[in-house]
Amino acid sequence: MISQDQLDAIINEAGQSALDEVLLGRLRAAWPGVHFTLCMDDDIPVHARAVAEQGRFNVYLVNSSDHCSVLTNDTATASGVVLAEVIED
Asked: Which of 20, 24, 65, 67 has the fewest Cβ atoms nearer than 10 Å?
């Protein structure tokens, strides 16, 4: 589970810096039970809905409770966060 307070803090932290491995390290240190992933927003399936849109990145949640990870919008089942960088064309 990822609480709304955790999600807000994660989004705030990501909004303050570059989306890179240094950020991932800080996020993983601050929330050791949460899995973090960086990708490009166009790598996300078109049917997926972001839980937050921040201009330069969108935020998606991951549920890894089964053997395969899936995107979810349910914070109660989420175990991970995807920060997907948006590049303007």
From this structure: 67
